[in-house]
Design brief:
This protein has 308 residues and is α/β, with parallel strands linked by helices. The chain is built from 11 helices and 9 strands. It folds into 2 domains: 13-138 and 290-305, Rossmann fold; 139-284, Aspartate/ornithine carbamoyltransferase (Rossmann fold, 3-Layer(aba) Sandwich), CATH 3.40.50.
Length: 308
Amino acid sequence: MQTQLSTKHLLGIKYITKEDIELIFSTADEFKDVINRPIKKVPSLRDVTIANIFFENSTRTRISFELAERRLSADVVNFAASSSSVSKGETLLDTVNNILAMKVDMVVMRHPAPGAHHFLAKHIDANIINAGDGTHEHPTQALLDAYSIKEKLGSVEGKNIVIVGDIFHSRVALSNIFCLKKLGANVKVCGPATLIPRYITSLGVEVEYDIRKALQWCDVANVLRIQLERQDIKYIPSLREYSLYYGINKSLLQEINKDIVIMHPGPINRGVELTSDVADSGQSIILDQVENGVAIRMAVLYLLAGKK
């Protein structure tokens, strides 16, 4: 079995192999044991310094990465662009080079520009982890989603998974599609036509516009947030109308009468894409996703550190 990743960076799911994904999952299994014991730290990255550089707001991803880094005993530097020299006009490369001059080994970065991580990987020597680049990819989210499905259903291969909502603006959707297809799942997307990109079928996924048909077909529904902050024009008439046609509530699930696993990358717009009685139900594995996020990110950090 493979013992090392095939790459020194995690720029996107598109650039890693199925074997890489399986290695990350098996490593995460071990770290899950660690984070569930009384002493939750291991000294694996004791000599490694990691910079978390976030050019966009983030709560869950940043905290999850920081927790993973501290569980591995790494030295952690947090950097928020809003309170830095970036707001004075400093370039991305200058910012990162200044941080690297402080002898940083790994960079976890979120950036609004798609491809920013590829640019960095060409110019600096540290390991780069993509914590989200614009509407392009969010690889660790896709890994933790697929890992959560595997944990719940025993396997990803052959499972029917529908991604519901704002596919057009979602980096989570794209990374999930790449990851689930590599692991052998059947994938559909579902949402209003205005929020489904035209190229999507070229990725080997089907489009379904009827939420009832999508839910009757699937084993797992991964429900995405409507990203109003990324919408420069109106793609839907209103959140109320979206909720009416694509929101998932308890009565809809009872009507379908099928045991579907409900997922959401967060934050949830409660009452829009999911009602509380669905988000907090026994069918939901949303909190499992949060827990698995730390284990998956520990695995990624640990394995990339071995590629120095």
